[in-house]
Structures are given as structure tokens and as C-alpha cells.
Automatic annotation (TrEMBL):
<dbReference type="GO" id="GO:0004062">
    <property type="term" value="F:aryl sulfotransferase activity"/>
</dbReference>
<dbReference type="Pfam" id="PF05935">
    <property type="entry name" value="Arylsulfotrans"/>
</dbReference>
<feature type="domain" description="Arylsulfotransferase N-terminal">
    <location>
        <begin position="118"/>
        <end position="204"/>
    </location>
</feature>
<dbReference type="InterPro" id="IPR053143">
    <property type="entry name" value="Arylsulfate_ST"/>
</dbReference>
<protein>
    <submittedName>
        <fullName>Arylsulfate sulfotransferase</fullName>
    </submittedName>
</protein>
<dbReference type="InterPro" id="IPR035391">
    <property type="entry name" value="Arylsulfotran_N"/>
</dbReference>
<dbReference type="InterPro" id="IPR038477">
    <property type="entry name" value="ASST_N_sf"/>
</dbReference>
<dbReference type="InterPro" id="IPR010262">
    <property type="entry name" value="Arylsulfotransferase_bact"/>
</dbReference>
<dbReference type="Pfam" id="PF17425">
    <property type="entry name" value="Arylsulfotran_N"/>
</dbReference>
<keyword id="KW-0808">Transferase</keyword>
Length: 603
């Protein structure tokens, strides 16, 4: 009991202070010599610990823990929470209530059968290439559907979650625009008997900002691509409507809501998308938990006070002409408790250097990580202001959560830096950067990873995420992938900067504190595919890698390439004329939809 109390609680997440270390030794001695007295002492110590915890302002790591003094930051945690003012609102759910009630009535009615089902295309007026099909059967059956593709291996097939039932609500995704789509609904009994109903679903034309985005496919080896029965490539755009394409480059899904940077698939099959109140608004500050049909399940609202723009990192002209700003500026990730961790600005003169954890139940901020509190003041206090008057010293553009050791990894474009933090204590676990070891304060140096020969020093990188994130791998050995823009912002490799961009896979040994590059692709493409900003790389389930060269040719086009481990291209698609700031910020291959997703209008 004594060991668990002292070692497991007081010492959790980082070094034990000298006071607690000495106390632990004395208590251990007391337990050995006088066991009964030790029990009394433990009880007293528990009261003391609770009292100290209540008096302490924080048990989190800060720069002072690394020997950095006078590291006072602009805002307190409470001020940051107030500036962001997160809350749950029901604006969109309220507007959809009548539609959901209509679909609930259809699901509960005995009127609709497989021979004559209820069919509603674009059920929530936000996703025109989807449909809802509702019917009942006399016998318990499971249901699958197929949207018939125009060419080989472009049909989309899904099995409806719920097993064998008599009441069926079928969410259909993957229709073609401006087409009389053929959709086959198949029921299967427990003894294997199948019945199929063929439906025709007619859709309208694409909206301007998708139709004008010219899609050209120059390579699509469908036998080698990772597409399965229902996977599409999402074009997560910097602005305008997000959409998804099949192996032919045909648009098979889009959302009418404008989004910026953030559209992520959640564990329940829903998607989290950052949008705005209306298309004429300048601020993206509504985070929607929605699905591919357009139904909104939760809506998180943020204050406009902390919004910022990334245009200054592209060009002076873009900074002056663009008024659009965003609150969650680059990334968010779902945590095991289903809260989300998002990259934000704090509302001070500094921007894009803060993270917040938001409760999925209350919409309130439950944790704040201000990176100014963790890194040396020399990195942020004298950094030059941008064209918007803000100081973008960090420019955090990625975050991922590690299930293996309750940690997070982040990417900082403007420091050419990637690092890992203990999520409970904010204590630094490792740092990788081209910043010279001698320029770091001495207390930070033990956290710097040593690169193996031939290992790339990243520059302005994007999209960092873990590969062995499944609770089965050792926390001492980790692999991750990122998109290396290869532009030396502050600490990147100046010798190679601007010559190429690439996807890179790394292996970190945290026992030896080393990092090794294990795979890369892009260098052979040279300056043609160099992108100074944005980009993404995704390792697919067959070990292919999907790479988004998102800002190719000065942002005039986005080039998405899928390659195998030997570097052979199996898919190559280019998007041009996508409208201002509508290039592909990220592109990723995902199932439409995954096995966890279920639509139910009765709930």
C-alpha cells in the first residue's frame, strides 16, 4: 500500500521532487521497523497530500522545470479558456428536428417494404450524393447495398450495422453527381437466402467550387491501390466544400458546408468537421460532429476572439486579400475518453501555439497546453511578427495521441521541430529538430534525439502521426510518418531546402534516444513537387502510402500520389483551378463508412 501510494501517485509522470524522494525513503524505513506506525503515517500523509494538492496551482511541467527562469507568458489558463469560450449549441440539430422526425416515422411505419421502400436523396440537405432507404421485412435479415460504379472496381458496397433485424434504415453513400445511379439493396436471411431490389437514384450537378476543380487521373492501377469495397479519397480542402473521389477521380461525396483544414473520421464512424455559421461568414468557428449523410449529432461553438489566418505564410498578397480566419487552425484528435484535443491560438499576440482538450459531454475546456510554458523563451519572445501583427513562432500543424504511453506527438512548422509530451504532466519525452544541441539550454539536451546516418532533418513539416498506435507495441519503440515540406523555416536543412518535398517514415528508440529514417518518397520528383506549405502522407493498410503534395506550383494545383513500398506509383491525380485557398490541405483514403457507423432516426 505504501509503495503504491508513494511510487504510483506522487511519482507519476515525471521525476519525484527531493522532498517526496526523501519522504519516501523515510516512510519505507518506518514501514520496515514499525509497521503499525507506518499505517498511521500513511493516513496522515494522505491528508497532507490532499491539502498540498489543493494549495498547488499546477502539477504540470513548465519551462521552469527545465531550469528556464522568467518564462512568464502572456495569458493565464483561465484567460485562455475565457477567450475561446467553448460551448455546445444545438442550432443545426434544432433545424434538422423536423427531418429526423420524418425519417423516424418512416422507420416505424409498416407501409414500406423492400419491394416499395421509402427513399430520400440528400436527406439532410447537406450531402447531395447520399440517400436514406427505409423498409421493413417479415423475416429478420441483414442488409447490404451497392452503388454500381461506372467502371471496374468503382462500385461501393456496405453492410448495414445491426445484424439480423426486421426494421431497416440504410444510409447510402457514394452516388455520382448528375446521374441516374443504380443502387442494389440486398437482404440476407440467417439461412443464407438473398433478395435484391434495384433502385434508381437521380442526383443533381456539382456546386461551382467542386465542378471547377478540374480532376485529372494519370495513373490508377486499381489492383494495386488500397480501395477495398468502399474506400474513397477525401480532399480535405483549405476552404470551400470538402469532397471525396474514387479511383477514376469521380466525385462520390461532398458536403455543402464550407470547411477549413479539419475533417476527421471519429471512432463511432462520424466525422468532425470545422465549419462556419454561413458561407458568407469570415470565421470558421463551429465544429460539427456529423455523418456522411449530413446529420449533425453535436455542435461545438468557439468565440471569434482567438481566430487567425495562415495566409501570411503563403504570400503578402494572400494575406491582404483573404479575410477568412479559423479557430481550430490545423488539427484535432479524439482521445480515449472521446474528448477532443485541438490546436488553437490563445487570444494573445502569439498564435497557433496552444492546445485544448474539450469535453464531448459539456463542451467545456478541461485542459490547456500552452507551448510557451514548455519551450525556452528564446524561441518565442523575439520571433518576428507576421503580416497580421501576430507572432507565429511555433505554428503547430499536427497532433496525435499515443495509446501506448498516454502521450502526444506534435509538429511545429516554424521551428522545424517534432516532439513528444507526456499527456498527463506535459513533460517532454523527446525532441527532434535541426536546432543545434549547443543552442538549447542544458536541461533540454537530454531529450534531443540523435539521428542515424541518412536520416532527414525535417523542414516546415506537416501531418505527423503515429503508425504503431494500437496498445500492442512498446512505448520505447515507436514509428511515425509525416510529410516533410523540406523548407528550412528556422532550423531545417538549408542545403536541401526547396529542392523537393517528401513523405518520410521514422523509427524512434526511446531507450537509446535515437531516430532513424526507414522509408521516404518524393525526392526523385524534385522541384516539380516541392510544396512550401501544407501536405500530408498516409500509410495505408496494404503498406502503400498516399501522399498529398497539396501546394504544388504555388498552390495552383494539388497532386495526390499513391506509391508502394518500392516507390512505384499506383495512383496519380491532380486537382487544378480549385478556387482561392481551395487546394487540398490533406488527402486521405477512408472507408465510406466504417463498421462502427449506424444511422438511426429513432434515436
Amino acid at each position: 500500500m505504501l509503495h503504491i501510494f508513494l511510487g504510483g501517485e506522487i511519482g507519476r509522470g515525471g521525476p519525484v521532487s527531493p522532498f517526496w524522494a526523501q519522504l519516501k525513503k523515510e516512510m519505507a524505513y518506518l514501514q520496515f521497523k514499525h509497521p503499525r506506525m507506518a499505517v498511521v503515517a500513511v493516513a496522515s500523509l494522505a491528508v497532507l497530500t490532499i491539502g498540498l494538492a489543493g494549495c498547488s496551482s499546477s502539477n504540470k511541467t513548465s519551462a521552469s522545470d527545465y531550469g528556464i527562469k522568467n518564462n512568464k507568458v502572456a495569458l493565464t489558463t483561465d484567460q485562455i479558456k475565457k477567450n475561446l469560450d467553448t460551448k455546445i449549441i444545438t442550432t443545426r440539430q434544432d433545424s434538422q428536428q423536423a427531418l429526423t422526425a420524418q425519417y423516424k416515422a418512416a422507420a416505424e411505419s409498416d407501409r414500406y417494404t423492400l419491394a416499395s421502400p421509402y427513399v430520400k436523396i440528400n436527406p439532410y440537405n447537406a450531402s447531395p450524393l447520399t440517400a436514406l432507404v427505409t423498409f421493413k421485412t417479415n423475416e429478420s435479415v441483414k442488409v447490404t447495398y451497392t452503388v454500381v460504379g461506372k467502371t471496374d472496381k468503382t462500385s461501393l458496397t456496405n453492410t448495414v450495422k445491426g445484424g439480423y433485424t426486421k426494421s431497416h434504415q440504410v444510409p447510402v453513400v457514394g452516388l455520382y453527381a448528375d446521374t441516374n445511379n443504380t443502387v442494389k439493396i440486398t437482404t440476407i436471411t440467417k439461412n443464407g437466402k438473398t433478395t435484391t431490389k434495384t433502385l434508381t437514384m437521380t442526383t443533381g450537378s456539382l456546386p461551382k467550387y467542386i465542378e471547377d476543380a478540374t480532376i485529372t487521373v494519370t495513373k490508377n492501377d486499381k489492383d494495386q491501390m488500397e480501395i477495398g469495397k468502399n474506400k474513397l479519397t477525401i480532399m480535405n480542402r483549405t476552404t470551400k466544400q470538402p469532397f471525396a473521389i474514387d479511383a477514376d477521380g469521380e466525385v462520390r461525396w461532398y458536403d455543402t458546408n464550407y470547411s477549413q483544414h479539419t475533417i476527421e473520421q471519429w471512432s463511432n464512424g462520424h466525422i468532425m468537421m470545422l465549419s462556419k455559421r454561413d458561407v458568407n461568414s469570415d470565421v470558421y468557428n463551429d465544429l460539427l460532429e456529423t455523418d456522411y449523410l449530413g446529420r449533425v449529432y453535436q455542435e461545438y461553438s468557439f468565440s471569434d476572439n482567438t481566430s487567425s489566418s495562415d495566409s501570411s505564410s503563403v504570400s503578402k498578397a494572400a494575406a491582404k486579400s483573404n479575410k477568412e480566419t479559423t479557430v481550430i487552425h490545423h488539427d484535432l484528435v479524439e482521445l480515449p475518453n472521446h474528448n477532443f484535443l485541438a490546436t488553437v491560438s490563445d487570444g494573445s499576440k502569439y498564435k497557433e501555439d496552444t492546445m485544448i482538450e474539450v469535453s464531448h459531454k459539456t463542451g467545456k475546456i478541461v485542459k490547456v497546453i500552452d507551448m510557451k510554458k514548455l519551450l525556452p523563451k528564446s524561441m518565442w519572445s523575439h520571433y518576428q511578427k507576421g503580416l497580421d501583427g501576430k507572432i507565429d513562432w511555433l505554428h503547430q500543424n499536427a497532433v496525435d495521441y499515443d495509446k501506448n504511453d498516454d502521450s502526444i506527438v506534435i509538429s511545429s512548422r516554424n521551428q522545424d521541430l517534432i516532439m513528444k509530451l507526456d499527456y498527463q504532466t506535459d513533460h517532454i519525452k523527446w525532441i527532434y529538430t535541426g536546432k543545434q544541441k549547443s543552442s538549447w539550454p542544458s536541461a533540454y539536451r537530454k531529450y534531443l534525439l540523435k539521428p542515424a546516418k541518412g536520416t532527414t532533418i525535417t523542414g516546415g513539416q506537416h501531418g505527423l502521426y503515429l503508425l504503431n498506435n494500437d496498445d500492442k507495441h512498446s512505448a520505447n519503440s515507436e514509428d511515425f510518418m509525416l510529410y516533410d515540406n523540406n523548407i528550412a523555416v528556422t532550423n531545417g536543412n538549408k542545403k536541401t531546402s526547396g529542392r523537393y518535398s517528401q513523405a518520410v517514415q521514422y523509427h524512434v528508440d526511446t531507450q537509446k534516444m535515437t531516430i532513424k529514417q526507414t522509408w521516404a518518397y518524393g525526392q526523385s520528383l524534385g522541384k516539380t513537387n516541392f510544396t512550401p506549405v501544407i501536405g500530408y502522407a498516409q500509410k495505408l493498410t496494404n503498406d502503400n502510402v498516399l501522399i498529398d503534395f497539396g501546394f504544388k506550383n504555388g498552390g495552383k494545383e494539388s497532386n495526390i500520389i499513391e506509391v508502394n513500398q518500392s516507390g512505384k506509383q499506383v495512383f496519380n491525380v491532380t486537382m487544378k483551378s480549385a478556387a482561392s485557398k481551395a487546394y487540398a490541405y490533406r488527402a486521405y483514403r477512408v472507408p465510406f463508412y466504417n463498421a462502427a457507423y449506424q444511422f438511426d432516426a429513432t434515436k
